[in-house]
């Protein structure tokens, strides 16, 4: 993450739908869901789900409650495992490893930990470590997971706290902060991992209304000034309109429609999208 503006790295042309980019390739989509199924018992939550996200793209996921949006983010964060299908990131299977013969087998815990390093997630409920001060909340994972020195991690954490407007809260505990401040710390903590992909799961839903705009403004700045790819579940349609290039409308574990925010919000093609937007706008 850089605090100065960085050009977004967009792919010149989308890859054919069935193409799988070579591992580490910068061609083709950064994220590909390939016929992903997620079941809890008999309940099929994601049903042969296909979609792609380009490098540097900011994508908003919308859809009715229970349509599977959070499940998609949790699968990408490897907090859940797919029941079937494959998630590709950067041309490598996220949830699987390739055998020497080229076949795919489910990834073990070690590979999942590696995959998790590239992806940051901010949750609705902040999920800060309550017993750690703000600075340690941000430095913990860079030191223990990325192997950074404490000094390097602290220097970066202080820069990030300045970016999110909380330089004076270095020594505070989470309980001494407002919800908006806690969410800013959670955003700084995610950025400290230098993620390629930032997952945002209804990050303003638990905030008092007067704190929402400040957090959304910060996220808008991050979207505009960095090359981080973002997947965002939100009910803030103005944020989706301002920040994302693509909106995916989900229903019953499938994409029913995708397009630019202008298209989806002004001229949706699908009846389910119209019904959903009428209910929330
Ligand atoms: N751990 C779990 N065990 C069983 N069912 C689950 C589990 N997690 C999610 N589900 C179910 O999966 C479905 C999709 O949930 P998910 O949270 O992804 O939906 P969502 O679109 O994010 O909803 P919302 O907008 O209300 O947050 C729901 O029916 C939910 O009950």
From TrEMBL:
Main location: membrane
Keyword Cell membrane: yes
Stretches the record annotates as Disordered: 1-25
Protein family according to the UniProt entry: Belongs to the ABC transporter superfamily.
Transmembrane annotation, as ranges: none
Localization annotation: Cell membrane
Keywords, comma-separated and alphabetical: Amino-acid transport, ATP-binding, Cell membrane, Membrane, Nucleotide-binding, Transport
Membrane topology: Peripheral membrane protein
One MF term in the entry's GO annotations: ATP binding
Occurrences of domain ABC transporter (ranges): 31-277
Biased composition (Low complexity): 1-23
Lineage of producing organism: Bacteria, Bacillati, Actinomycetota, Actinomycetes, Kitasatosporales
Name of the protein in question: Ectoine/hydroxyectoine ABC transporter ATP-binding protein EhuA
Name of a matching Pfam family: ABC_tran
Any one of the GO BP annotations: amino acid transport
GO cellular component, one term: plasma membrane
InterPro entries: AAA+_ATPase (IPR003593), ABC_ATPase_HisP-typ (IPR030679), ABC_transporter-like_ATP-bd (IPR003439), ABC_transporter-like_CS (IPR017871), Ectoine_EhuA (IPR014343), MetN_ABC_transporter-like (IPR050086), P-loop_NTPase (IPR027417)
């Amino acid at each position: 993450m850089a605090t100065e503006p960085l050009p977004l790295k967009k792919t010149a042309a989308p890859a054919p739908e069935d193409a799988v980019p070579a591992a580490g390739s910068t061609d083709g989509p950064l994220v590909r869901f390939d016929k992903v199924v997620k079941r809890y018992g008999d309940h099929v939550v994601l049903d042969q789900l296909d979609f792609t996200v380009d490098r540097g793209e900011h994508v908003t996921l919308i859809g009715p409650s229970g349509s599977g949006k959070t499940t998609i983010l949790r699968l990408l964060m490897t907090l859940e495992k797919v029941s079937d299908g494959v998630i590709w990131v950067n041309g490598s299977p996220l949830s699987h490893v390739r055998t020497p013969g080229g076949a795919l087998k489910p990834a073990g815990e070690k590979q999942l930990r590696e995959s998790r390093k590239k992806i940051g997630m901010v949750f609705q409920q902040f999920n800060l470590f309550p017993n750690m001060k703000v600075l340690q909340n941000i430095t913990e994972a860079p030191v223990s997971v990325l192997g950074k020195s404490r000094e390097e991690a602290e220097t970066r954490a202080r820069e990030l706290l300045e970016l999110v407007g909380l330089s004076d809260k270095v020594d505070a505990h989470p309980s001494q902060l407002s919800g908006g401040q806690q969410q800013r710390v959670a955003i700084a903590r995610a950025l400290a991992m230098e993620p390629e992909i930032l997952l945002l799961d209804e990050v303003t839903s638990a905030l008092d209304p007067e704190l929402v705009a400040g957090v959304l403004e910060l996220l808008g700045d991050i979207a505009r000034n960095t090359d981080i790819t973002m997947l965002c579940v939100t009910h803030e349609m103005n944020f989706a309109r301002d920040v994302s290039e693509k909106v995916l409308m989900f229903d019953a574990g499938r994409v029913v429609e995708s397009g630019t925010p202008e298209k989806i919000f002004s001229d949706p093609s699908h009846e389910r999208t119209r019904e959903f937007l009428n209910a929330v706008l």
